[in-house]
Structures are given as structure tokens and as C-alpha cells.
Amino acid sequence: MTVIGKPVDRVDGRLKVTGVATYAAEFNQPNMAYAFPVRSTIAKGTVTAFDTAAAEKSAGVIAVLTHKNASRIKALNPGEQMKAGIIFLGEDLVPLQDNKVHYFGQFIALVVAETYEQARHATVLLKITYASEKHAIDLKSELQKGFKPTKLFGEEAQINPGKTADLIAASPHKIEHTYTTSTENHHPMEPHAAIAVWEGTDKLTLYDATQGVGVTRAIAAYFLNLKPENVRVISPYVGGGFGCKGAWFHIVLAAMAGQVTKRPIKLVITRQMMQTNVGRRGATIQKIALGTDHNGKLTAIRHHNETYTNLAQFFEPSGLQTAVLYEAPLREITYQVARLNIGTPTFMRAPGEAPGTFALESAMDEMAFEMKIDPLEFRVLNHAAADPIKKHPFSCDNLLECYSTGAEKFGWSNRRMQPRQTRNGKYLVGYGMATATYPAGRSSASARVQMTVKGEIKVMTAAADIGTGTYTVLAQTAADVLGVSVDRITVKIGDSSLPPAPIAGGSQTTASVHPAVLAACEMLREDLMKLAVADAKSKLNGRKAEEIAFANAKFFVKGDASMSDSYEGIMRRNGKVMMEACTTVTPASGVGLGTPVAPCMPVPTAPEENSDAKKYSFHSFGAQFAEVWVDEDFGTIRVRRMTSVQDVGRIMNEKTARSQIIGGVIFGLGAALMEATEYDHRWANPVTRSLADYHVPVNLDVPEIDVHFIGKPDPHISPIGARGIGEIGITGVSAAIANAVFNATGKRIRSLPLTMDKLL
Ligand code: MOS
After folding, report:
1. What atom in ligand 1 is closest to the CA of residue 466?
2. Which among 364, 504, 519, 629 is placed 20 to 30 Å from 202, CA to CA?
């Protein structure tokens, strides 16, 4: 391998920075009309009347759709949806089918007009009468009426309920604390957007901003009663997707508007709608209890998780990391979920682990302080040698090396155990650390590769590049396997007509799609070599495959570069203008994924007996270190630097990998210091409606982030040994920062975000 691993520039970078890359809302169509959704202004109840007269008369308006006149689409049916390949459906609420309102901001009507402005204007002319009911908005008070989920991604949700009480009570050292995290909203740079183009009444093309064209196609086909092969979803570039761009019903709304108006329809979700209609990370209340013996060995871990959902089953699975980290004779992980009148929660970068590591890793820091053990030492002492619940070994675990590398790079030895020991001018300086973890997934994927006689190579697969580097890594793969330079490769992704690939969720794209592209390129190379070997005019005629090497678009005899034959020569002599290979790779003997290991994972195929999936537990690990400076007069916290060491298997591209971790750490920094969706309990509306009041980190908030990789290939996940990298970067970050704040100030803040009011 000459290109894999190298910090190759993004092959799509120039297209993006020059504005040439086309995003969903930019695929303008002739005769296109614009749809603008109308949102409810109550959180629970019914719409009793729509007066659409004024809106309909408004300039440019073509149609007003409400539950009264909208076409009937297929009802929810989880079993049937599963069979249709629908995962990642945003919400369990089919739009415009009845007059019920379940949350503030729910789409209750749609105005279609000649221009965006005309459509938007007409929405304010609609007169809507409601019958309100009392809404549920307060998590704490609604939990009692909530439910105890039995299943979490196909496994038992409640682990050992009630069983740790005696052990913890009998432990010589114990702590018990409650940690809370806020509701957070997705704000990728590109909001959701779709353009729906009908051809007749049974063929639909959708340009959509999606993490998975296959899943989006399945959803559109299912709910609109179309044959999947008659729906094409195109999404070549995605301006960020962190779990929010599964599929939401805006695509179906756009298609419904197209059916009525017989026009192509553009529907763009506004920044305000991002707060209400396309998912969020639900707030959590997490109670953690730890017990240890006299030597600091954990005796039991208890983690009770409380959160909410709406109508759907999805809830923030904040206990996930607690099932994976640390040795302990017994652990208890339980959930209680309320039903609130807030739009459905959804996947958001490391769903579960992001808020869950805040609680667990804060508690670990508290226990270490209680015992006067260095918090890093405390983690080493309790490191899990194998999966604590499944008891399998990990496929590849270098967590201890993450700790030691991080400690060295960060300068952990300069940390003082007692808080308030280090000052710089008026600032109190503190160091904190935490463990990072995220499951490693892999699904089946397909790829097609074509080579023209001119040496142009096209790699095709219905994968997504949500900003992660998929284009680049797949180009590197093909370049290596075919022995050509990266600039000869064109990667075509983000189109459901291409060979299927999994959704870009669960940090699994590289682990899943790389093996497919590798296999297709190898098939093509072998076909080409066979032509040469069989050709009397080739210098490779009659040679054995083992004798032949390849580079620079040529085959040659190992040790004698003069005995060569170019790909072009071989194809010309054989009269081939183009050659291609296509294959599907199912991780049957690798990670069979018998049970979904990550929330964003597609429906798994059953693993074979004795497959690696049954023998190993697949996880990535890391260590996060933070230095904070706290101004006690103002209660402000500034993160001065962070070190992030990640054990994610082989690194495919040093540059894009590093960017992934930096992005994840910044995501974690946002959750730690500023991100919170606040609701006015009187109306259940989010008062943080835009980026002016829903704060995310800006450049000045982001310190130097020092990223290191262990880089050892995972021998069990795939031939190349690369695990996912998209989500782990966020995990542990908020705990490392909160722990550093404690080390600086002696104040333990158990509630995110760490705003100044909590510090003062
Ligand atoms: Mo996801 S939260 O896009 O794996």
C-alpha cells in the first residue's frame, strides 16, 4: 500500500470550497415550485379548523395542503417498515394524515407557491383554530408516568435491575451522584432540504440531504406506495450529518406537493425548523453509584438513565458505555423513559456515549478523588480485559496505550491531585481526563469499478460522504489496489441507483465500504492480468500470478521492470474500451453483527456460528485530556488545549482522520460548555430558535487539539483493520472538561452545559 494511510487531500475539497459541489437544494428544476411547511403553535391537542381562503388567494400560491385534502399515504407499521429496509426513520408520525398535534412546531399544513417567499408569506395568512390539551414538557415530573423500555437495539435494555444495592452498600468506599445533560439540537451547516421530481405518477426522483440514499429511497417508496426501483435518491454532497440526516418526512411532504401540483417541488427546512422537526438529543438524568474495595478495585457499577421520547421508541441510550468500560463483579444499567410533547429525539453523534460518558467519567473522577488515587491510575487499575457483559475478548484493545500516550503528550504528570493548586494570573488552571469509547460496526456493502482504456477509473457505491472523507478514502483504496495515482480515480457515491452501501451512521462507512471497493478492484485487476498472461503479445505471457507485480498502471515481472505490460496496452490489444467488476462483501466471517452494536446500524445479518462476531466484542477506545482556565470572578471557563488519543484500528488517511477527531472533540466541547435547547414550559416551544441563542463553539472557543492515533490494525474487523472514526471523538470530552474544572476550582458541576451560573 502506497496511498492508504497517507494524509491525501480531500478529493472533493476543491469542489466544495469553490462552490462547484452541488447540494440537495441546488438541483433546481425547470418549472419548479416551492413548498413551505406550516408548524403548529400548540404542543398537544387537535386542529379544529383551517381557514385557507386568504392564503389561497395570496400571490403565487398554487396549493395549500392540510390533513383534509392531503393524499393518504401508508400508515406506520414497524414490522412492514423493517421488511422494507427502513431504519433511521426520523419520527413515528406520518404528516398531514389527521388533525392531532403531538408537539410544538409539528408540520400541520404545507403551502406551495411559485416562489419561496410567496409560499412563506402565505403561511402567515392561514387561520388555524386549535383545541389545546395540557402538554407534557417537564422531564422530571413526567418520568413516573413513563415506561421502562425492554429492548435497546435488539438487546435487553434493563441489565440486572436492583441487583447492585447490597454490593454497593457493603463496599468500603462508595459514591452516588446524579448527572444531568441538556437537550441538544442538530445544526449542520446545511439544513435538511429536498427536491421532489415526479415522472408520471409512479416514478420519483428525490434530491435530498441524507446520510443514506438507500434508506431514504426505502422510506419514500414505502410511504408513497411506490416500487423501490421507481424511486431514485440523489445526494452527492451532504453539508454535515451527525445522525439527523436519516430520513424525515419532509421528503414525503415534497413528493405529496408534487403529486398535487404536477410540478417539481423544492422544500428547504429553516434553521428554526431544525429546532423542532428533525430530531434532537434528549436531555438525560443519570444516577451513578460506584463501590470499590480498599485497593480501589470496583466492586459494582450502577447506572440508572432517565430521558424522554415522543411517540417513537427512540430514546437517548446513555448507559451504553457503562456496559463496556471497566472491570467490576457486577453492574446494573437501567432506563426509565418519559413521553413528552417535544419532537422525537433521534441519533446524534455517539448517541448514548456522548452524554453517558459525561456521567460515568465524572463519577470515575469523583471516586478516584475520594480514594486519593490519580484518576488515570484509577482507570488503569479497573481496565476491563474483556467485554464485561458478553465476556468475549475485544477484537483489538489498546486503551491502556491510549492512556499512557495521552498522559505523555499532554503532560499529565504536572497535574496536582488537590484542586486550586495552579494559577496563571487571575485564572485557576486545571487538568482533567476521561475515557472515550464507541462500538465498531460493519455491514455488507457493494461496489462497482470501471476502467477505460485511457486509464480513467470510476468507483461506484451508494455510500455517503457526510463530510467525513469517504470520497478520498475510496479513491485511495482504488489507487492502491489498481496501482495508479489518486487523480485517475473518480468516486461516484450518494445515488441510490449505484450498488448498495449502508447508511453513513454508526461510524461504519469505511469499515463496510472499503472491503467492497477493495474486492471489486482486485477482481478487475485479476481480469486484466489474466488477459495479459493469456496474450502471446504480452511480456507477461505464460507467467504465474505470483510472479507479477503492478504499479503505475502496469503489470511487470517482479525483479525485472523491463518485462512489463501497461493496462492500456492490454485493453487495446484485446479490443476493450472499458472493463468493470462489481461485487458485494458481507462480513460473514468478520464482524457478522448478529446484534446491532450501534444505534445507527442497519438491520444486521445473522452471524455464522464461530464467526468473529460471536467470539469478539468490537469497540474503539480512546483517552481525552483537557486543560481549562477558569475565571472565578466571571465564572467563565476556557478550554486551553486538549489531547485526544484514539485507538480506532488502522488509519486510512491521516488528514481526514485527524479532522474527524477534531470535529468530534469540538462537538464535545459544545456539549460541555454551551449547547442546550431550552423550552418555555408554558407553550412547550424551544426558545433557543436559532444559532443566535442555541450556542455552538466558534473559532475563538476552540483551542489547539492535539490528536494521536494508536494506528494498529484490528485483525478481526476487516482485511485492512480500520474501525469507524466519526463518533468516538465526542465521547469523554465533556467529562474531561468537567473534571478539569473540578481540578481547577474544587467545584464539581454535575450538569451540562457548564455555564457560568453553575460555577458562580
Ligand atoms: Mo449517527 S448518530 O449518524 O451514527
Report:
1. 3
2. 504
- Between 85-89, 290-294, 415-419, 474-478, the lowest mean confidence (pLDDT) is in 85-89
Q: Is 301 helix (H, G, I), strand (E, B) or coil?
A: strand
Phi then psi for residue 148, to 5 deg, are -100, 105
The minimum-distance atom of ligand 1 relative to the CA of 347 is: 2
CA of 664 to the centre of ligand 1 (A): 12
- Dist. CA 503 → ligand 1 center (Å): 9
Residue 246 pLDDT greater than 90, yes or no: no
Q: Which amino acid is at 9?
A: D
Query: DSSP string covering 441-473, please?
Result: ----EEEEEEEETT--EEEE-S---SSSSHHHH
Alpha carbon 395 to its chain's center: 22
Q: Which residue has the higher pLDDT, 592 or 196?
A: 196
> 159-175 pLDDT, tens per residue?
999 999 999 999 999 99
Residue 246 near ligand 1, beta carbon < 6 Å: no
Q: Tell me if 356 sits within 8 A of 734, measured CB to CB.
A: no
Indicate which atom in ligand 1 lies nearest the CA of residue 245: 3
Type of residue found at 741: V
Q: Is 596 in the pocket of ligand 1 (CB under 6 A)?
A: no
Q: How far apart are CA 487 and CA 478, in angstroms?
A: 11
Residue type, 280: R
C-alpha cell at 68: 383534509
Q: Judge if the beta carbon of residue 664 lies within 6 A of ligand 1.
A: no
Strands (E), 455-588: 457-460, 489-492, 548-551, 554-557, 560-566, 578-585
Strand partners, 205: 197, 232
Q: Give pTM, 2 decimals.
A: 0.96
Evaluate: CB of 88 within 6 angstroms of ligand 1: no
First to last CA, the chain: 55
Under the banding of pLDDT at 50, 70 and 90, the label for residue 595 is: very low
The closest alpha carbon to 319, from 345, 350, 286, belongs to 286
For the chain, counts of helices (H) and of strands (E) = 19, 32
How far apart CA 49 and CA 142 sit, in angstroms, is 30
Summarize the confidence of residues 669-695 as an average pLDDT.
96
Query: To test the ligand 1 pocket, which listed residue (153, 186, 349, 353) has its Cβ within 8 A of the most ligand atoms?
Result: 349
